[in-house]
Amino acid sequence: xxxxxxxxxxxxIPFIGLGQELASGKVVRADSGEPIPFVNxxxxxxxxGTVSNEDGEFNFQIPAQATAEMEVVFSHIGFExxxxxVADMGNVSLEIKLIPSEYDLDQAIVxxxxxxxxxxxxxxxxxxxxxxxxxxxxVFYRELIWGNDTIQGMSRARGxxxxxxxxxxxxxxxxxxGNQYNMLSxxxxxxxxxxxxxxxxxxxxxxxxxxxxxxxIFRMWDFNVDWFDYELLGGKKIGDRDVFVLAxxxxxxxxxxKAKKWGFSNYGLLEDAVxxxxxxxxxxxxxxxxxxxxxxxxxxxxRRLIYVQKMREAVVKYQRNEAGDYLFTYVxxxxxxxxxxxxxxxxxxxxKVKEYAELYAMDYEFVNLDKDQLREKYKMDxxxxxxxxxxxxxxxxxxxxxxxxxxxxxxxEFWVNYNFPSCPNENNLEKQLSKKRPLEAQFASFxxxxxxxxxxxxxxxxxxxxxxxxxxxxxxxxxx
Length: 480
Fold this sequence. Notes:
The strands form 6 sheets. Strands 9, 10, 11, 12, 13, 14, 15, 16, 17, 18 and 19 form an 11-stranded antiparallel β-sheet that branches. A 4-stranded antiparallel β-sheet has the order 4-3-6-7, with no helix packed on it. Strands 5-2-8 form a 3-stranded mixed β-sheet, with no helix packed on it. It has helices at about 115-130, 205-210, 210-215, 255-260, 370-380, 410-415, 425-435, 440-445, 450-460; strands at about 5, 20-30, 40-45, 50, 55-60, 70-75, 80-85, 90-100, 135-145, 150-165, 180-190, 230-240, 240-250, 270-280, 285-290, 300, 305-320, 325-340, 350-365, 380-385, 390, 395-400, 400, 420. It has 2 domains: about 5-100, Immunoglobulin-like (Sandwich); about 115-460, no CATH class. Helices cover about 15% and strands about 35% of the residues. The protein has 9 helices and 24 strands. About 40% of the residues are buried. It is globular. By secondary structure, the chain is mainly β.
């Protein structure tokens, strides 16, 4: 398999194999040489973008349609914008130095209105700031899970995200949350064996793999600004854009009540959040989200799993294109909890668990596929008319992942030539996971029959089939 060491994205997969040059390097602070994580890297003329990883490293293939004079822009919160020509990027490892902006958190901002108004203006501006046309994204997903500080499992997946774009209708009715106008589905996967089997495992997939974070911005219109206390931390620069740094903290139970509704659990992450908001158009450049729990022992209603939730957190990034539209580009998510086993188990092992997942845009295709094209690409039924169409997933649903029908398997030939983003220490993680049997064998044994876990859980607990009966199957209009 081909891995890009220590990166956060390669974004022009359709052109792999056409002989394009490879751009790689590291983004560091000009004053100290320290790496800068999650830097937006965009070829502005093409609207293509990527993000450096947490070590500041990047690696991407220059697209065939890029010309030598096109500019590649490096931008990040708190730093001056830096530019390079495409001609300077190919087949050489670069060190990109970003200069810290003098306009920083130490510079106070005096407002003639309450900081709460900033969030109100964000809500009012979503229709004009979010990209509003149907489009396609190629995405890459990674999942890692640790138990008692030891790696227990890893998954990688390539997929596609369809979005109808942000429309007024999507954000103006109380019964619309934006979900039905987006669909994320995967067609390629590498999944290791998992050393932890509980009904909690895979929470990152529900938040990321089902596309909830890319769609979270669609729900921002439904914020009740009175749920929060506000603190304007100051201002920063993202390239040439002035940005408010606005912290919000939940002051009442409004967020918690909202988060308890089905499909809205990620509202809980707004309990302690920081928004990076454009001072001119009030678009959202980045969100840092965190939810802390009271750490009280709970028991799941149907499966009788005993656990203690501790904390979960996320970072969501958007890129602003030349036209002033904001597009989802990256998210990471971490969930921390303690698993005390099932009520029916004797002497269960206690696991201190950390689940980490990330999803980022690999490529953007700014096209409006018709219904037949969408059906062919996603193998799903499509209803409605653009830009208010809905895609209806088929039955191939695997513990939080939605797969493109017939393709949810491990295909070794795909991964041989697929330059996927890697993460720090991934080689060591692979070695740990391959101690019991080779990773290739683990990948090859993957099945997308989503309820294979129930047989193992029944055996562990000595329970009857009826208790562990699958509850997640539902009918689908898909014919594939």
